[in-house]
Amino acid sequence: MYKGNIILISPPGGGKGTLAKQLKDKWGYTLITTGEILRVEKNSDSKIGKQIKNLIGKGNLVPDELINHIIQKEIPKTTEPFILDGFPRTVPQGEFLDKITDVGLVIYLEVTDKTIQERILERGKTSGREDDLSVDIIQRRIKQFKEETFPLINFYKAKKVLTYVDGEASIEEVFEMVENILRIWS
Ligand code: ADP
């Protein structure tokens, strides 16, 4: 039975990407990963690419209109159900999403600031992402998350689609918890 799509929310470095990949491999979900889409665009020589590079490199979000436009182009390409990793990241993005598709389940991976910083610095050794290298930029991303993205938790709680998962647990444990949630939900 079709129950809508799945959204993953976590602070930066919270484990969304790892979880999304596991869900794709084992459950066959289509993924829409906004960070990846933006990084591809960033590396193109376009004017928008340069704008994106500037924003992401400093630890800022890209404007809602730009990412909403990208999502609106991506969603019709997918066969449902799909997983959104990295979208929405602001309440206006969440409101926009409601206009174009159904949200059935929101998984919020909770992680402490200390863990975020440790994980991102570790990832920075191999990710090639400039936003993973400096403590200042990581702190800025954590602040952005608290101010811009965290309000989505109440937004989705009110819609009764939100589930909390302990993102401090191991990769295997997180996946097991999420699989249990999906078995009950789907
Ligand atoms: P992380 O896993 O560290 O959260 P992502 O790869 O998901 O990083 O995203 C990298 C960057 O791309 C973000 O820090 C932000 O600048 C930009 N970005 C991704 N998704 C969005 C979005 N929905 N709205 C605005 N900016 C976004």
Instruction: Round the mean pLDDT to the nearest integer and report it.
Output: 95
The small molecules bound here are: adenosine-5'-diphosphate
Helix content: 55-70%
Which blocks of ≥5 consecutive residues have pLDDT under 50?
Answer: none
**Fold-level CATH name:** Rossmann fold
**Strand pairing plus helix content: what structural class?**
alpha/beta
Can you tag this structure with a few keywords?
alpha/beta, 186 residues, binds adenosine-5'-diphosphate, Rossmann fold
Can you describe this structure?
The chain is α/β, with parallel strands linked by helices. It has a single domain (5-185), classed as Rossmann fold (3-Layer(aba) Sandwich). Helices cover 58% and strands 14% of the residues. Strands 2-3-1-4-5 form a five-stranded parallel beta sheet. Helix 2 (34-43) crosses helix 3 (47-57). The longest helix has 15 residues, at 113-127. The chain is globular. The relative contact order is 0.20. Adenosine-5'-diphosphate binds next to helix 1, helix 2 and helix 3.
